[in-house]
Structure formats: C-alpha cells, structure tokens
Amino acid sequence: MILIFGGTTEGRAVAETLDSAGQPFYYSTRGEMQQVECKHGIRLSGGRDAVQIVAFCREHEIRLIVDAAHPFAEQLHRNIAEAAGELGVPVIRYERVYPPRDPALVWCETYEEAIAWLQEHHIGNLLALSGVQTIPRLQVYWEKHPCWFRVLDRPESVQLALKYGFPQERLVFFSGEGYEEELLEQLQPDAILTKESGSSGYFEAKVAAAACRHIPVVVVKRPPLPDGFYVVTGQNGFRHWVERLLPGFFPLRSGYTTGSCACAAAKAALLTLLTGERYGQCRIALPDGEEVELPVYHTEIGEKAVTCTVLKDAGDDPDVTHGREIRATVSLCDEPGIYFQGGEGVGTVTLPGLGLAVGEPAINPVPRKMMTAETEKILANQGLNNGVIICISVPGGEELAQKTFNPKLGIVGGISIIGTSGVVRPFSSEAFVATIRKEIQVARALGCTHIVINSGAKSEKVLKWRFPDLPPQAFVHYGNYIGETLKIAQEEGIARITMGIMIGKAVKLAEGNVDTHSRTVVMNREFIAALARQTVCPPKTVERIFQMTLARELWALFPPEHPFFILLVQKCEEVCRTFLCECQLDIILITEDPFYR
Q: Where are the alpha helices (DSSP H) in 340-456?
C-alpha cells in the first residue's frame, strides 16, 4: 500500500497517476479543504508526527511513502524522513518545478534575513505574498511597518490571521492567477515578499508583475529536503519510480523512447568531454519540460571524443529495441552549430514525407530538439561557442529494422531514433499511431491519393493482390486503431481510402468501436444476433450465434453473399463516415474469397 502526503497541485498529480493503476492507496492532507479526484484513494485528514506516521504505516502495511506536500512544510518533511528511516520504507518526493534563481531578486535563506533586508532598505509599505502561516514569522516587521498580507479567501484563513493578531483591514485576498497587477496598482507597495513556491505556486507571475513596476522582490528560499528521498518533477518520473520501488502496483512498466536514451547518452558524453567526469546518471528534459534521470551504462573517453551508452528500457512494451545499446559519440568542432550523424545501426532517409531531408540520418525532429536544447544549455553554462557533432549509433540496428515499419517508410540501413513524448507507455497507442501518420505522410509525399488500410500482414497480402498497381507505401497497417487512421487520412488530404477488415474486427467496428483491441472491447453476441434478426435469419441460426467462441465462426453460419454480411459492412461504413468528409471510402470484408461492398 502507498501513503501520500498531499494537499497541493502535486498531490493531485500523484493521485491521478496512482488512480490509473486501479489499486487502493491512502491520500493524507492536513485539512479537508482540498478537492481531489480519488477513484481508488482513501482520504485521510489531520496532522501526523513521526510516531503517528510509523504507527499508521505498520497498521496498514505501507510499503512506499510519497511526499507531495508544500515545499515549506519543513516539519512534515522531517517527520516523513524520520518515520521512513525507522520503517525502512522508501520515499518519493514529488517536487515542484522551480525556475532558475534570478540574480535580480533578493534571495534570503530565512525570514529573519528577509526582515533584516527590509529594515536595512527602509521598506515602508510591504505586500507579503507568503501565505497566512507566515504572519507570525514576520511579526517583528509588521508590528512597526505598514504591511499587507494576501491570503486565501476563506473564513479559516481570516480567523487564523486574526488569531495571530494581524489587523483584518490589512488583509487582501487571493482571487486567482493574473490578479497580481491589479493588486499592485491598488496597494502601491515598496517591495514584495514571497516564498520560492515554484511554478504551481504562481511564483513567476508574481515576479513578472513586480518587474513591470520595478518593485523589488524579496524571496525566501525553499528549505532543503531530507537526504534519501527519490526526487521527481512530473508524472512520468513518478510512475517510473513507483514501478521500480513497488513492483506490481502498476500492471505494466513504462519506459523511455530511443530518443530519450539518445539524448541522455549525448548529454552525458558532452559533459564528460568538457569536464572529464564520468556520469552514472543523466538528467534530461522531456518534450513537456519534465525532467527525468536515465542511467548511463558505459562511458568511453577518447582523445577528441567521448562515447556514452544508455540501455533502452521500454518497460513492458513489446519494443524491438528493448535492452539494446543506444550510443552517442560527441566531439567539438570550430563551426558553431549542432550537427547530427548516423552511426552503426541508425537508418538513412530515402523517401520524402518524414519531416527529414532525404539523405539525413533517421533521427526524428523531437529527439533532435531534445538533444539540441540540452547541448545549448551546457555550452551556455560553459561559455563556449564551439560546434558539437553528435553521432548516434545502435549496434545491431540494421537487423532490428527488418522487424519494424522502416523499410516501407524508406529508411534503410537501420532503425529510427524516435519518440514524441520521450516516454514509452506499455502497449500504448502513441507509438503505433505516430507510425501510421508517418506512413500516410510518406504515401502522400509520393503522390498517392488512394491508400489501402488493413489490420496486418494477412489482410495486406489479399489487398495487394487486389490492387497490384499501387506502390508498397500505399498500404498502411491500422492494427486496432481504425478511428485514428481514418482521422489522420482525412487530415492529410487523402482522396480515396479502401479498408480491408477481417470479420473479428468488423463485428466490433460495426457496433461503433473504432479501437478494436481486445483489452478495449470484446465480441458482443447480442449485437451480432440483432444484425442477424434484421436480415431475417431463422431462430436456430440466432441461437448458434450465442454459442460462438470466435467471430470467424460466422462464415460457417452464412455464405459470403448473405445479407448479414452486407448489413455488417453497411454498419462499418456508417461508423467510419463519422471521421470522413468528402473522402471516398470502400470497405472489403476479407474472407478466403474476398468481396467488395
């Protein structure tokens, strides 16, 4: 069981992530005000010291603690660390994202240091945006100087402020992001005092509003976390550590794309090249800004270049590159810029439509952006203007590519370095749908206005026999993602679509299921029987439908020309038409003797 200490935006993200596992967990907040969706979470409220945390964890067999509390909840962080140490239970800290510390701001380690600065600079009218709990910490200042406190607009906040002796007429209320400029116009403060509360604490909005009016901002730094916490800044990194610290909580493990692995290898190699230090872990930013750490498997330092290797961990996704070495060899050059090369096992683009120039290594745009961003940050930090050459290689990649869609896409000599999110979700649709889009884009770039979509190799063989004049790129596998494929074809401006479909997927599609995977939908005998009744089938035939195990048994009940199959295809057309405008659509129900409808 997992115990979360929440009450924050980060706590909501933790609950949302754990809810997707479908298993129970505990979600604890100090009060009862926070609204959070917990389908499987058991809500708790009230403060707990270290002894009480230990007792609760032992009673409820807690095996993992998540600290998603406010960064300034110092005592709670200490209580969690003390309890976890006694129990031998790991702690994941779901941390906020903090912008770099701007030297134009006044950074203070403590409230006492902040008060000293305010007094030294004779600040006579202060707006404190540090929260109601900090009123007693600043009492020495506000008893002698004009001061406003912005608090949450709720009775308990006002009552607490009055309990601390702060005058009610000096309270102003938080009414959402974007209110800062109006408040500054109204109060005309000489300075603002706030906490380093991170992005979810509207820190940047406060600073930006003050900068517009040239008002100094005094910031109390966030306190350091106890040692030993596993720190994450987003849902992907959080799930990653839950999967490893508490195996089995999620039914399937997630992983990282080849693009993320290449980025981590390239960043580690560049850092080693510049510093001489070897790195066992490398932190990179995913496309959405979340930072994650990937282990560096091996580092080889040469005279002018460094090669780092990251082992691809695809989690439980059936990825052909799982466990393979993703290598990056990095060197410097005099010409400014970042240059990508494809080494052993990385394919070369030979057809248009992939978003890469023909002749370029098959390192997709998103991984290139990730590596470029990390490289530029390192160069800026080092004060360098050199160019950087990044060569990505995947030993054995040429053989692996034969198990992928690459040959059809015109990528020869190896695999692609891919990944749009940076994360591999087990058996996710993301990678498959991304491949579908690329296939259709390549077909369009080659001038194909007619594409033939099909579920796999068996149906494609039949369809290629039916359309011998179409190029190989015109045949696209939809797998189970019929709706997504039709949507993409519409977006890409394909004029004519022929869809080949086997009977098992047809009975699911006809009912309105555009994702036909067995984890999503199963054969509905009631629906099939209803179609049979519409085509005036005898009762005995309808009874046999309810005894079927597989949809293919329908071929034994009806001949191919039977009205049942005509109606079935009509229903499929009706569902597919909801994704298409003026595109011509033909559906072929595939049997051993395929026929049109």
A: 365-382, 397-401, 406-409, 429-445
User: pLDDT digits over 150-177, tens only?
Assistant: 888 788 888 999 999 999 889 988 765 5
Q: List strand residue ranges (DSSP E) for 265-422, in order.
A: 281-285, 291-295, 298-301, 305-311, 325-333, 337-342, 348-349, 387-393, 411-412
d(CA 459, CA 588): 10
Rounded Cα gap, residues 432 and 263, in angstroms: 22
Q: How far is CA 271 from CA 258, 284, 302, 385, 488, in A?
A: 20, 12, 14, 15, 40
CA 133 – CA 160 distance, rounded (Å): 8
Give the whole-angstrom CA distance, residue 428 versus residue 408: 22
Give the pair of three-digit tokens for residue 198: 């991170």
- Of the residues 245, 280, 311, which one is the last residue of a structural domain? 245
101 part of a folded domain: no
pLDDT, mean of residues 503-529: 86
Q: Which two tokens stand for residue 57?
A: 């964890």
Which residue pairs, CB below 8 angstroms and at least 24 apart, start in 269-272?
269/299, 269/305, 269/306, 269/307, 269/308, 269/328, 269/329, 269/330, 270/306, 270/330, 270/374, 270/375, 270/378, 270/388, 271/378, 272/299, 272/301, 272/306, 272/308
- 117 pLDDT higher than 90: yes
For residues 288 and 292, give the distance between their C-alpha atoms in angstroms, rounded to a whole number. 11
How many of the other CB atoms lie within 10 Å of CB of 186? 11
Q: Calculate helix-pair angle for 365-382, 258-275, nearest 10 degrees.
A: 20
CA separation (Å) from 449 to 199, 405, 477? 47, 20, 17
Q: Both 300 and 417 in a single domain?
A: yes
If asked whether residues 27 and 116 sit together in one domain, one would say: no
**CA distances, 400 to each of 112, 318, 338 (Å):** 62, 13, 28
- Dihedral sign of CA atoms 279, 280, 283, 284 in order: positive
Instruction: Specify whether 418 is located in the same domain as 433.
Output: no
355, amino acid identity: G
* Structure tokens belonging to residue 458: 């068996």
Q: Read off the tokens for 161.
A: 């402020």
Give the tokens for residue 522: 């199963």
- Domain enclosing residue 26, as ranges: 2-95+225-245
Say if residue 388 is in the same domain as residue 284. yes
How far is Cα 349 from Cα 442, in angstroms, rounded to an integer? 11
Which tens digit of pLDDT belongs to each residue from 303-315? Answer: 899 999 999 988 8
- What is residue 539's three-state secondary structure? helix
**Is there a single domain that holds both residue 539 and residue 394?**
no
pLDDT score recorded for residue 595: 42
When divided into structural domains, the chain yields a total of: 4
- Under 8 Å between Cβ of 438 and 489: no
Residue 556's nearest CA partner among 506, 517, 503 is: 503
100 in any annotated domain: no
> How many whole angstroms separate alpha carbon 176 and alpha carbon 202?
9
Structural domain includes residue 295: yes
Q: What pTM value is reported for the model?
A: 0.66
